[in-house]
Amino acid sequence: MDTPFEPRILAFLCNWCSYAGADLAGVSRFQYPPNIRVIRVMCSGTVSPHHVIRAFQKGADGVLVAGCHIGDCHYIKGNYMTLKRMDFLAGLIAFSGYQPERLRLEWISSAEGVKFAEVIREFTEKIRALGPAPGWAAVPLAVGA
Amino acid sequence: MIDKTTVSPKDAIGSVMVVGGGIAGVQAALDLADSGYFVHLVEKTSAIGGAMSALDKTFPTDDCAM
Amino acid sequence: MADVVDVAGQAGRFAVKVFQRARYIDMDKCIACGTCAEKCPRKVPDEYNSGLAKRKAAYVKFPQAVPLKYVIDKDHCIYFEKGKCRACEKFCPTNAVNFDEQDRELSLEVGSIVLALGSEHYNPETYDIYGYAASPNVVTGMEFERILSSGGPFEGHLVRPSDHQEPRRIAWIQCVGSRDPHHCGNGYCSSVCCMYAIKEAALAKEHAGPDLDAAIFFMDMRTPGKEFEKYYNRARDEKGVRFIRSRPHKVEPLPDSGNLMVHFTTAEGRVLQEEFDLVVLSIGLQTSPETVALAGRLDIELNSDRFAHTSPFRPVQTSRPGIFVCGAFQAPKDIPVSVMEASAAAAECGELLAAVRGSRVKQVVEPTERDISAEDPRIGVFVCNCGTNIGGVVAVPEVAAYARALPHVAFVEENLFTCSQDTQDKMKEMIREHNLNRIVVAACSPRTHEALFQQTIKEAGLNKYLFEMANIRNQDSWVHQSMPEAATQKAKDLVRMAVAKVGLQQPLAEFQLGVSKSALVVGGGIAGMEAALSLATRGYPATLLEKGSALGGHGLELHAAWDGQPVAPYLNDLIGRVQNHRDIEVLLNAEVEEVQGFVGNFRTTVQAGGKTREVAHGVAIIAVGGRSLEPEEYGRGQSDRIFVNLELDRAISRQDPLVAGARCAAFIQCVGSREPQRPYCSRVCCSHSIENALRLKALNPEMDVFILYRDIRTFGSRENLYRQARAQGVVFIQFSLESKPVVAVTDGGKLQITVQDPVLQHPLVIAPDILTLASAVVSHDTDPLAKQFKVPINAEGFFLEAHMKLRPVDFATDGVFVAGLAHYPKPIEECIAQAKAAASRAATVLARDSIMAGGVVALIHKELCCGCQACLQCCPFGAISYLEQESRCEVNQALCKGCGTCAATCPSEAISLLGFSHLQLYTQIDEALSA
C-alpha cells in the first residue's frame, strides 16, 4: 500500500507578529498538522521571490509567507512590500503554468494563535488535496551571498 | 525635598535597599541598577519571583507568568 | 533568606540591619542536581503549590527559581529536630551541604529604601461558610492556578483534589475575603480577583473543552484595566463562561459524590441552589501580620485597610521620607500597575540620590571576544526537555543523537531546563572545554529566550550572534501533542536547519553611539510635567511640549483626587516647579512635526508658537493625555440640568443654584464606555460619580441621590467610598446594556428617567432635578504622533506599550515611553506613578554614556551593487543613501533597524541582512526540504 501523501510546507514567519502568533498557538496548545517547517525572518519583507521559488525548486508542496497585519508592521511598511511582491509572484507562478494556490500570504498578529493554527490546518488540507507539487527544476538555482 | 528629614545631597549614599523580590521589587531593583545605583535586594524566601511565579498564566494576554 | 530588622537614619543615609537566615547549602558549590532533595526522607507540604503537593525538607522553591540553589528548611529538617540524619550531606556530590552555617546579621548603608513587600492571600478558614476546610474540592484561586499549571501538582491536568477526576462543573465565588468588613475585616476590593477568575474560567474551558460548565458568582464584575473588558466579553460571548450576579451564602459539601451545593441569592432576590464538582474561592489580597510588624519597626504609617499610606499626589512615598513603596503593599493591585509603581519608586530614589549617582557601582567589564575567524565551525547543541513540556512529546535523546551526527557539531547535551542558571554555567564551561564557536539551543522560542542565551555565550567569550535557536516547544511539542513521532521528526529538521544556519554565521560587530542626555516630553498635563520634573531633578534636561497655551492639561478640569484632596494646590505647585526649573524648557502652542533618529540620538522638528526648531534628545516620553467624551445620548444638550461629572465638579464648587436647590439627583454610569463601539471601561467614572454623590449629600443630606450603574467598579480602598455612599442613603440601581435607562426632557424642562428595576422587575420612574452622565475618557487623535514616533496605538487610539504586563511604559521602539491618559484612562495617582515610571525607564537610557548599534543590520556588498537605488526607496527608515561618486548605495547602520526589506528588493542580491543572509536563508530552505 502507498503511504498517504504528506505535504511538505515551508513557512516564512516574521519575527514580530506571525512567529509570535505561532508561539502563542503553542502556549495555548492549539493543535495543528506537523507538516510545516518554519523559517524565522525579521520581517515578511525580507522574503524575496527568489526564496519562495527556491523552496518550490527544492520540493516544497506549499509555501506560506506570513507577516504583521497591514498597518501593524514592526518596520512600518515592510509588509506592503511583501504584499506587492507576493501578488506579483503569484502572477508569475501562474504564468509559468504552476498552481498559484501553492503560495499563500497571510497576516497573523502576535495575538492570533487561533488564526495561526487554523491557517496551518486549512493550508495543509488544501495542499493535501492538490497533491504533490510537480517539479520545478527548469530554473537554475540562485547562489546567494 | 531638603528638610531635616533628609541629609544634604552630597552626603547621601549611592545605594538603595529594595525589600521584597516579587515582580515589583525586581523591577525597582533593575531600574535602579541600570541607572547608576548599587542595589541590595532583600527577599525573605529562597528565591525571587514572588506571587507571580506561582501563577499559571496572566490576564489579559494569557502570557505564561514564568 | 533575609528580613529587615531595623532602619535608622534619615533619607539619603540609612543604616539598616538585615537578618539573614542560614541556607545550610553553599550557593557556590550547589549545582542544583537535586540529589539532596531526592535523598531527604522528610516530606513537607509545598507552599509553592499551595500545599497541594509535597516537597522535601531539602528543596528548591520551584524548578525555574532564581537563584537555582537548594535550601534546607530548618523548621522541618530531621537533623535539626532529632540530631541525626544528614542524608543530604552524605550524598551531595559537591559537598555543598553545611549544617554549621550560622544565621547572620548584616549592616547595610543605603541612601533610600523601596518596600515591595507584596501581600498575602486571604485564608478562607477565617470565616468558613464556603466549606473550604470541610471539602478538598473547595479550593482557592491560588490553588487553582497551581492545578492549571503544567508545573503544578497534577502536571496541568484539570482534575479535582479529592478523587483526581476531571470536573465537569466548576463554580467561582468572588469577593472571598474582600468587600466584607464584618466577617474578614477587609472592606476594600482586592482589585485582581474578577480578572483572575475570568482567566481561570477561560483557561479551564481550554483545558477541559467547551462542554465544561464554568460559572462565576459575582456581585459586580470589575474589569477596569486596559484590554480587560474585551477579555471579559470574550470569556462570556465566545467561551461561554456563565456570569451569575448573586451572592452565595453557603457551599454545602455533599456526601459520597464529593460534589458541592452552592446556595445563592440572585440579584432579583430569588434563593437558588446549584450543584458543582469543584468550587474555586476567589480569595483577596491582604497585608500579612509580618508586614504590619515590619511597617511598625520602620515607622511607616498604614491606612485603615492596612496598606502603606500614600497620597494620590505622591503615590509611592510612604509616611517616612526616603522610604518608598510599590506593588500590593501600597494597595491591592495587578502586575502592570505594580511594575509601573516599581519604576516610579526607582525614580523617586533617583531624584533623592541624584548627586551621588554612580558612587557605589562597579564598572562592568565587557568580556573579551574570542577571535574565531580562523576556526572551522565547532557547534554545540543543547536540547531542552523543558521539564516534560518538550520531553513528554518529543524523543529528546533521539534528537540529541541525531544532532551529534550533523556536520560541524562538536558537542551535544540534553538538559532538563536549558534556561536554568546551572545550565548557563555549564554552557559556558562546555564552550571553553570543547572550544565551541557556535551554539544551537533547541528549546522554546527565541522571542523569549534568545537574549538570555546570547548573554551566556557572550560571557563565554563568543560573539552573541553565533547563536541560533530551534523552536521545538512552542512550535512543536506543544502543538503536536498527540503525534510524538512526527514531532520528533520535526524537531530533528528544525535542529538541522538551525545547525546549518549557524554554521554560516559570522561574528557581527556592534559599535557605540553617544547619547544626548536630555528628554523630549510631549504633553504638558500632569503626566508630562511629572515626567519632565523627575528627569530634570535627576540632572537630565527636558523639553516639554504643550499643544495648548498653558500647562495643566486635563488636570485643570479635575476637582479632587479620589480621597477628596483638592487637585488645584498640587497642580499649581507642580506647574510652578516645572516653569521655574532651570533644566526644563517649556514650549507652549507646540507640536511635533517630524521625528528623526533613534534611541539616544533623536532629532525632532518642533513647531512652537509659529516657529520651527529642531530639538536633539536621547529619549522621548509621550504623555498627550485624553479627554472626556461629549455624550450624544440620555438627553444631553436638551437641558441645562444634564451635566457630565467634570461640569458637576465645578457646579458643586460654586454652589450652582441648580445643584444647591436640587432635591433629587441622578447619575448614569458607563456613558460611552463598555459599549460595542468603545469596548473598554474608563476606570475612573464609578469613583468619580460616587465622590460627587457624597458631595451632594454633604451639601444637602436630604437630597435623594440615585446612581444607575452596570457594575460598580470601586477597586481597592475606593470600595470604602461605595460603602459610605450606601450608608448615607445613595440608591444604586443596576441596569444592563440591553435595557439602558431612557431619559426624557419634558416641555417644561423637567427630567424623567425610566429604568427597569432589577429587584421588582418593572419599570421605575425617577424625576431628578439634575442628571449627571459619567462620560467615557477617550483618546485624542493620536495617529499622527504614533506614526511620527513609529509606535503603535490600539483600536481605541490609546498608545500600546511593549508588553502589557512587564513593560507597561516602554514601547518596542527603544527610547520612547508612554505615560498618563494617552496609555489608558486612569486616576491621578496612577498617572503620576506612570509618569515617574516613564522617567525612570528613560533614565536607564540617559544614565548610559553610549548605546550599542549594529548587529542585525543590512550591509551592501559594493562590488555587487549596480546603483539602481531600489533599496533606497523601499527602506522604511531612510537608512540608505546613494553615493554619487561611486554610483553605489550605502546603509547607515545606526539608522538601520534590520528589517531586511532592502535585501529582498535588491535585484542582484547585493544586500545582506546580517544574521539572515541570502545564503543562510537558501541553506535553511534546502535543509528544511532535504529530509
Describe the structure.
The complex is a heterotrimer of chains A (145), B (66) and C (931). Chain A has 145 residues and is α/β, with parallel strands linked by helices. In chain A, strand 1, helix 1 and strand 2 form a beta-alpha-beta unit. The longest helix of chain A is centred in the middle third of the chain and has 18 residues. Chain B is elongated, with a radius of gyration of 16 Å. In chain B, strand 1, helix 1 and strand 2 form a beta-alpha-beta unit. Chain B is built from 1 helix and 4 strands, in the order βαβββ. Chain B has a two-stranded parallel sheet. In chain B, strands 3-4 form a two-stranded antiparallel ribbon. The mean pLDDT of chain B is 86. By secondary structure, chain B is α+β, with helices and mostly antiparallel strands. Chain C contains 24 helices and 46 strands. Chain C is globular. With 931 residues, chain C is an alpha/beta fold. In chain C, helix 5 packs parallel to helix 6 and helix 10 packs across helix 11. The chains are: A alpha/beta (145), B alpha+beta (66), C alpha/beta (931). Chains A and C meet through helix 1, strand 2, helix 2 and helix 3 of A and helix 11, helix 12, helix 13, helix 23 and helix 24 of C.
In brief:
The complex is a heterotrimer of chains A (145), B (66) and C (931). By secondary structure, chain B is α+β, with helices and mostly antiparallel strands.
